[in-house]
Amino acid sequence: MAPYLDVRKAAGSELFALETDQMTLGSDAANDITVSDRKVSRVHAVLQRYSVGWFLRDLDSTNGTYIKGVRLSSVHQLRHGDEIRVGDTTVVYRDPATISDPHRTLVTEPPPELTRREREVLIVLCRPLLSGGPFVEPASVRQMAKQLHVTEAAIKDHLGNLYRKFEIEGTGERRRLRLANEVLERGALTVAELRDGDAGTAT
């Protein structure tokens, strides 16, 4: 059985199977998981499936997303039994596979060591992901170069080093998205850094 969310409502629980790689949660009926709660934003959070499991990311909602009483500031890897609170609604993550295999562990590899310049590049790369939409692309090489006041060649050099550090293989523009997802998944940057960080000039 696939993992699912148990949305606790006054009339009882409603179960939502996590069947696609990305599912949105919010008060708008267009979401994959609809929560009728005045304190829940229209598109409140997004759940994404990676090779190691499911991850939850708040989409800069007004009232925040909480795991076990702690407000999310970065991407969170979900574990069976995690209680998620959005507005006044409690949502419980269930993963039957974890119950059937007690030796199964969910491990997120820690991020590699980064230089100050590399952190600045990653902040600019990932900051568009806080715009509130679940399908937003990270910054382009041109946008990053303009914001950091450097050449596109310099940005490509930094990205090349970051691809190696985060073991992002392949070629093409999709590597930037994979890098941004990996950065958030492994907690290399926090939402607070992306929102408040003042990226300087990269060299």
Quick recap of the structure?
This protein has 203 residues and is an alpha+beta fold.
Protein model, in words:
The chain is of the alpha+beta class. It folds into 2 domains: 95 residues, Tumour Suppressor Smad4, CATH 2.60.200; 82 residues, Winged helix-like DNA-binding domain superfamily/Winged helix DNA-binding domain (Arc Repressor Mutant, subunit A). It has 6 helices and 11 strands. The strands form 2 sheets. Strands 2-1-11-10-7-8 form a 6-stranded antiparallel sheet, with no helix packed on it. A 5-stranded mixed sheet has the order 4-3-5-6-9, with no helix packed on it. It is elongated and about 60 Å long. It starts with a strand and ends in a 7-residue tail after the last helix.
The profile of the biggest β sheet is: 6 strands, antiparallel
Strand content: 15-25%
Principal-axes shape call: elongated
**Count of β-strands:** 11
Going across the major beta sheet, what is the strand order?
Answer: 2-1-11-10-7-8
Number of domains: 2
Q: What is the succession of H and E elements?
A: EEEEEEEEEEEHHHHHH
Spans with pLDDT under 50 lasting ≥5 residues?
A: none
State the helicity in percent bands. 25-40%
CATH class membership of the largest domain: Mainly Beta
Rounded to the nearest angstrom, the distance between the terminal CA atoms is 50 Å
Rg, Cα atoms, Å: 18 Å
Q: What is the annotated CATH architecture of the largest domain? A: Sandwich
Round the mean pLDDT to the nearest integer and report it. Answer: 86
Structural classification:
alpha+beta
Number of helices: 6
Topology-level CATH name of the largest domain: Tumour Suppressor Smad4
